[in-house]
């Protein structure tokens, strides 16, 4: 029987990299979609050393066709996608009185719209028991006006996760947003590794106790 597979969208050196390592340590093979080849080149050997087979692609996930093709190639190669983890968001330091509509829509396309793209592309490779996870943020509830689009993205992606969970639960596929109620740091309760552990716990929650939002308070 083939090993389970996680595809990490928005792979980078922070939470997403920690998620990839956590799942690799648990016996998953890993697919990485990211924008920086150098970062992916650093992640791949680390994951391979943990026993994972690793596929990776540099892709702009707001490019609908390119993102769909990349996810489909990974699914076709592995024959399955058991976990789809979505991490991207745009951080733009602009308050609502200077943020333009095109800028807001550009950021939402990354932080919310791209989730639709990758889920729709992954769906044919997902079966009962598969899971979708999203890195959420307290910005959804407590936005900082200095980066107004981030709160809109995090509120929007959480709402979309609720809808995805309802739409897919009849097929045994569940979706969860983990709201990180703190600021990422190198030490303490909000290190990327600790957040990744919270995401692991959420994804592996028993069906009978499933919730489409989990709050990680440290």
Automatic annotation (TrEMBL):
Keyword Oxidoreductase: yes
Documented EC number(s): 1.-.-.-
Enzyme class: oxidoreductase
GO molecular function: oxidoreductase activity
Top-level taxon: Bacteria
Keywords: Oxidoreductase
Statement: the UniProt record of this protein carries the keyword Methyltransferase: no
Pfam families documented for this protein: adh_short (PF00106)
Family annotation (PANTHER family): OS08G0476300 PROTEIN, OXIDOREDUCTASE, SHORT CHAIN DEHYDROGENASE/REDUCTASE FAMILY (AFU_ORTHOLOGUE AFUA_5G14000)
The name this protein goes by in its record: SDR family oxidoreductase
């Amino acid at each position: 029987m083939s090993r389970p597979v996680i595809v990490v969208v928005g792979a980078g050196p922070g939470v997403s990299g920690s998620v990839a390592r956590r799942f690799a340590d648990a016996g998953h093979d890993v697919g990485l979609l990211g924008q920086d080849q150098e970062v992916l080149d650093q992640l791949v050997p680390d994951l391979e050393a943990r026993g994972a087979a690793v596929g990776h692609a540099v892709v702009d996930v707001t490019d609908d066709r390119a993102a769909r093709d990349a996810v489909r190639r990974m699914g076709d190669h592995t024959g399955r996608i058991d976990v789809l983890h979505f991490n991207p968001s745009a951080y733009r330091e602009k308050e609502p009185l200077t943020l333009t509509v095109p800028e807001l829509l550009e950021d939402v396309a990354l932080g919310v719209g791209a989730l639709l793209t990758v889920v729709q592309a992954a769906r044919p490779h997902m079966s009962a028991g598969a899971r979708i996870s999203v890195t959420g943020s307290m910005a959804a509830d407590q936005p900082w006006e200095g980066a107004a689009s981030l709160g809109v993205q995090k509120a929007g992606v959480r709402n979309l996760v609720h809808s995805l969970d309802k739409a897919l639960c009849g097929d045994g596929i569940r979706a969860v947003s983990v709201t990180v109620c703190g600021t990422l740091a190198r030490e303490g309760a909000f290190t990327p590794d600790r957040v990744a552990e919270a995401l692991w716990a959420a994804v592996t929650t028993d069906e009978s106790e499933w919730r489409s939002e989990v709050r990680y308070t440290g």
